[in-house]
TrEMBL record:
One of its GO terms (cellular component) is nucleus. It holds the Pfam family DDE_Tnp_4. It comes from Petrolisthes cinctipes. Coiled coil: none annotated. The keyword Nucleus applies. Its cofactor is a divalent metal cation. One of its GO terms (molecular function) is nuclease activity. This is DDE Tnp4 domain-containing protein. PANTHER family: NUCLEASE HARBI1, PTHR22930. Keywords: Hydrolase, Metal-binding, Nuclease, Nucleus. It is found in: Nucleus. Residues 7-89 form the DDE Tnp4 domain.
Length: 142
């Protein structure tokens, strides 16, 4: 909602996989990238998603409330995730280790790009941000 109502500073984006609709605030990869800006964009998009997913993985390992579906309102979810992130940073600053009670702590599980989402977006929703993504790639990834 914050992005859709222009309440987030310009230049901030979410990164989503190809199952999500491309919007000016939600950047998805090109399905068949052309050499040049599109291929460069996809490469950086993928690397950035991996870094973010690893960070989220650390939060999930430290705070079990984030392992599954958080069954509260979006506003409360935002506060819970924010509090976990703040506490995680305090733990890192004080060298408090992530609990080792879960197997394969360094393993990050990635969904396949073509895995269906548990819900479907209308076809038109997938098209809304395509011109923005094209311009974004051409400007920033030449």
């Amino acid at each position: 909602m914050l992005f859709e109502h222009n309440r987030v500073p310009p230049g901030n984006h979410f990164l989503g996989d190809s199952g999500y609709p491309c919007k000016p605030y939600l950047l998805t990869p090109f399905l068949r990238p052309q050499p040049g800006p599109q291929a460069n964009y996809n490469m950086v998009h993928k690397r950035t998603r991996i870094i973010v997913e690893r960070g989220i993985g650390q939060l999930k390992r430290r705070f079990h409330v984030l392992h599954g579906e958080v069954r509260v309102s979006p506003a409360k979810t935002y506060r819970i995730v924010g509090a976990c992130a703040i506490l995680h940073n305090i733990c890192k600053a004080r060298n408090i280790e992530i609990p080792a009670d879960i197997d394969n702590l360094d393993e990050v599980v990635y969904a396949a790009e073509d895995d269906p989402l548990p819900f479907a977006f209308p076809a038109a929703a997938h098209q809304a941000g395509l011109p923005y993504r094209d311009a974004f790639a051409n400007i920033h990834f030449k």
